[in-house]
Design brief:
homodimer, alpha+beta, Butyryl-Coa Dehydrogenase, subunit A, domain 1, Butyryl-CoA Dehydrogenase, subunit A, domain 2, eight-stranded mixed β-sheet, two-stranded antiparallel sheet, AcylCoA_DH/ox_N (chains A, B)
């Protein structure tokens, strides 16, 4: 099995040079927040990730969660690992301070979450879901509900779940049929939910289910959905778990991957009805979900990076160790020295770096938005489907390259490469498929916005191109024209969308995924170029400041190399996807259903 | 589980309009061969594929082959299915008539093999390997060996295996260490072989292992490898299996997919040494392997088509059945009517059609080469790495789209979509990885050939462009400029290879996979355009001949639709890969090993 080591320096570089964390901390008077703090917590989290969570990743794949006597038994070792995660205070990182959280910015939470998902994605889904419950309750729960539930969710003493999907309501939440009947100060919830991640386990003394359901008099469709808290164990007046609520896991899915993450079918109200408490106002459930959506979707996008990084580290180690063939002098050749293996490793490394840059910048924009920056809000809205859609799609390719580098061994389960590939396959599906992200991007975030956010982003890319253009660095001079051509092509796509796409929404939908992928590769190329620019500046600097000092010359030239590779290897995809967009894929419906 | 139905009309269309089977039969006086015969055998094979092999595909995934008491037990039902396959005479299809084969051309064998691999790839690997053994013995075996082994291999009474790989010799056969010691009229073979497909089973009364090993005085490297027949059971003078040879399966791989195909570690000579018989001359084993290689590699490429077709059929059915959302009038909407789902289905269908066109044309060139056509030989050499590399790479994407169309259900194993995705993952690895194919294409088949075969192919594409240019059909007029631009780009790549690539072989290696993928998409686009051209001609024809009559108007317009989609969706990838080639990926080695 592969060893996972947190890519600390890469994370710090992005926080430092692209996010400009210190500036952000100063601007919003986040006194405790600094690059130094980031270094410390990445280092500490890295230890837990490497020593505890990463080795359990294989265990969990082989011995997935099981349902025994209507109770889910998590994979061996997971309860102890979770306890350690809680004891070390990791659950509290970004929670609001008034409920026991550390109140650190989302961008730092994201930097750390990357490590958890790399080390053990199936495990890390559990705290990820809890974070969603915390967010919902913090934003919309009554003070009473907050008091009873938030402290223990934030400390990690309890975990949280999100109950949305039903057998007939997948991407279409309007079809939700779960019912909630008022009864005194609470409601009785009845119905079935499917695909509930970590819907049950024995790691904590309680589980807080957030459930979408309809009140008796609710309007049809998405405007009649309300959000409820349904605890696994009902609480005493003192807030301690007492008797079991009428909510249970009735089956587990047998999945392609993430075996350690129990995917539950939850049945609410088989007997008297599960007791639940309304969050916020009636019929606002969906809009409450939307407030969490940007963060949740970005979190899944982040998983795309995490699992790719994990796969990259494994592929790199294998390629260094494995020899094939000999030199003329009879020396064995490590396969890392073969051009095509090197190409694949560079594709993985530069892809991961681009994703990390995008996800941390997008995460920082969530922080800026929370502090009232409306430009950042527009960016968050625009970035989110790209982070979710593009990064998870790219992770399919990069985890597959890990198998490819392993050759025949990659297809053998014991090697572990296959697990990352299988685990990754859920990422383009849950929390909204790539198609859903793409419709969101092209519709709400572009056409309905008159492409303002898009124009803003293209302006930023243009500014970077201008900066690059003044450089005399030979590597940057390789990157600049490629980025500029990609920018011009994306500008043509913008114009096309505003003309053709606006006039023909179906045509816009035809090309939506290509538009999303184009934007992903462009954003990646832009941030990689920016990284290279910073690396050149830092490298050429005579007066090294303390930050710059932390980067070795090797590290800085590598940043230029991966950016150069990205430009040669990935930027042509901007044109490919753009050409498909510009065709309008007018042939999408050229066949009748019966001709397919 | 999905039902598989042979895409009979599509197969016949390619054989008729692109391969021009009747012309081929006339040219080489293959009296029995005709389109009518093709229709009959596709229909009959389709029945066995649908009724017998296809249902066992899931069984084999759930209950893979197991090793019990040093014997491999195949999946339940497989022995009976294999017997039916043999009883119906399918094993004999292309075998030479002097040993009981039907002597049908390779292109018909390929058309039928597509069905077996679609229905049950793990099963079909067994006869596929036997075909390799037949080919080797037919080409290089002594009359005595042929007499003793060929009849029963061709009838299917026995099966064959290929024993190449060893723990330290993966892609690098020079490292083969297995030993063969002369002893009278035979040899004693000792050593271990890994990844031996269908290396053991109980479906037949014997198994004929073909084994690469070194004679005592053999030169080092690839020039010292000889090829041996090593039967599982030694033969009596009458040619009947008697006692067990000293060759056994000592373990099975636990694989990501194709669970029903036992992947054996074979141990030869644990006791007295396995008795083997030399095929042909000493030290020529590798060159004998090369004579089989084009066919074997094209067969694996074909598997890429087969599994994609299977995945497409499943996705199509699901998309028709599954509803999400309602129209304004309250009618449920089948997801097949959503643009992005339709896009994915069109990507799958047009991708399969392009692959089928390429694989059958390449298969027919093997026939033409066998009949002495030297131009065809050059095409076979050039096509083979493209068929193998591009088609198997594309199958990764298309089997993944099947999961994507299924949404959450695609990630659940019971649906069966995940199996095709898992099974497909081996295809870019075995029988030479994509990287190996790409090196072959760029090196031996292009640069060493002064790009003559490439130029020939570009000429053929150019001819098609010229034919298309004279058409007034509106769909063709959409396709023509796109194909022409792709052709121009490929021509630029040819020039680059002859200039830069020839001067810098490492740079050529950097971009080899991109070159291969570019060629694949170009070949696909060319043949799809040709199909559309034929469809337009047939459709506009007033004097329908009997062949043309077999195609409905719906079928012919669909051919134009998928070709149009291919041009909009896949041809931009020619430019993407070409742009990467033209960059030389000069950054591939920009990082030292330690910087990765």
């Amino acid at each position: 099995m592969s060893v996972y080591i947190a890519p600390q320096q890469d994370t710090i570089f992005v926080l430092d040079q692209l996010v400009e964390l210190d500036k952000l901390a100063a601007q919003y008077a986040l006194d405790d927040v600094s690059l130094e703090l980031a270094e410390v917590i990445v280092q500490e989290a890295g230890k837990l990730a490497t020593d505890v969570l990463s080795p359990l990743n294989t265990t969990g794949d082989k011995h997935g969660a099981v349902l025994v006597d209507q109770q889910v038994q998590q994979s061996p070792g997971y309860k102890e690992a979770y306890q350690q995660y809680v004891d070390n205070g990791w659950a509290t990182l970004t929670g609001p301070t008034e409920f026991g959280g550390q109140g650190l910015p989302n961008v730092l939470g994201t930097a750390i979450n990357e490590l958890w998902h790399s080390a053990n994605m199936a495990f890390a889904l559990c705290p990820m879901l809890s974070q969603g419950a915390v967010e919902a309750l913090t934003a919309h729960g009554s003070p009473e509900l907050q008091k009873r539930y938030l402290h223990k969710l934030i400390s990690g003493e309890w975990t949280g779940t999100m109950n949305l999907t039903e057998p007939n309501a997948g991407s279409d939440l309007a079809a939700i049929a779960c019912k909630a009947k008022p009864e005194g100060d609470h409601y009785r919830i009845r119905g079935q939910k499917i695909y509930i991640t970590w819907g049950d386990h024995q790691m904590t003394s309680n589980i807080v289910h957030l459930v979408l359901a309809r009140l008796p008099d609710a309007p049809a469709g998405v405007k009649g959905i309300s959000l409820f808290v349904v605890p696994k164990y009902l609480l005493s007046d003192e807030g301690e778990p007492t008797e079991l609520n009428d909510a249970r896991c009735i089956s587990l899915e047998h999945k392609l991957g993430i075996h350690a993450s129990p995917t539950c079918t939850m049945s609410f109200g088989d007997n008297d009805g599960a007791i639940g408490y309304l969050i916020g106002e009636p019929n606002k459930g969906l809009s409450y979900m939307f407030t969490m959506m940007n963060h949740a979707r970005q979190s899944v996008g982040l998983q795309g990076l995490s699992i790719s990084e994990r796969a990259y580290q494994q592929a790199r180690q294998f390629a260094k160790d494995r020899t094939q063939g000999t030199t003329k002098e009879g020396q064995k050749i490590a396969i890392i020295d073969y051009p095509d293996v090197r190409r694949m490793l560079m594709a993985m490394k530069s892809g991961c770096e681009a994703m990390r840059a995008l996800s941390l910048c997008a995460a920082a924009d969530i922080d800026k938005h929370h502090h009232g920056d409306l430009d950042a809000k527009a960016r968050v809205e625009f970035y989110t489907p790209i982070v979710k859609g593009w990064m998870t799609e790219l992770s399919q390719e990069l985890t597959s390259l890990n198998i490819q580098i392993h050759g025949g061994m990659g297809f053998v389960e014991e090697t572990g490469a296959a697990q990352h590939f299988r685990d990754a396959r859920i990422l383009t599906i849950y929390e909204g498929t790539t198609g859903i992200q793409a419709l969101d991007l092209v519709g709400r975030k572009t056409l309905n916005d008159d492409a303002n956010a898009l124009k803003q982003l293209l302006n930023e890319v243009s500014n970077t191109v201008s900066q690059l253009s003044t450089s005399t660095d030979t590597t940057l001079n390789q990157i600049t024209p490629r980025l500029n051509r990609a920018l011009q092509k994306a500008t043509a796509v913008k114009d096309w969308l505003l003309a053709q796409g606006k006039a023909d929404r179906q045509m816009a939908a035809n090309v939506s995924v290509d538009y999303l992928m184009m934007m992903g590769y462009l954003c990646g190329g832009w941030l990689m170029a920016k990284s290279a620019l910073r690396a050149v500046e830092l490298s050429g600097q005579n007066n090294l400041n303390s930050e710059a000092n932390t980067y070795s010359e090797d590290f800085l030239t590598a940043k230029q190399g991966t950016a150069h590779f990205y430009a040669e290897y990935y930027l042509p995809r901007v044109h490919q996807h753009a050409d498909t967009v510009l065709s309008g894929l007018s042939s999408t419906f050229s066949l009748d259903t019966d001709q397919l």
